[in-house]
Amino acid sequence: MNLEAGFRFIIFLLLFGSTNYLMMLKRYENDLKKRLVIQKNRIAELYPKGTFISV
Prior knowledge:
mainly alpha, 1 helix, rod-shaped
């Protein structure tokens, strides 16, 4: 009985850890995309409109 409970606990930890990892990875990717867009907008503000730099 204890062995079965131990296996179930290990499976639960693996499932919980993998879902947590996937959620954090998705959040990191979204934050990275937002930072890149903000960086491009800040760079584009340095140049006048109609120049070769466009976002």
